[in-house]
Amino acid sequence: MNYVQLNTFAAALALIAVVQANSAFADDPPLSFGVVSQRSLQLTAQYWNPILRYVTAKSGVRLELKLGRTGDVTSAMVGRGEFDIVYTNHNFTPGNDAIGYKVIARPMEPTIMGQIVVLGSSPIRSLAQLQGKDVVFPSKSAFVGYYVPMNALMRAGIEVRTQFAGNQEGAMGQLKAGRVNAAGVNSQVMRDFAERENFEYRVLWSSEGYLNIPISVHPAVPKQKATAVRDALVQMGNDPEGQKVLAESAALVKQGPPFGFVKAEDAEYENLRKFHRESLVKAE
Question: Which run of H or E residues covers position 71?
Answer without folding.
Answer: helix 71-79
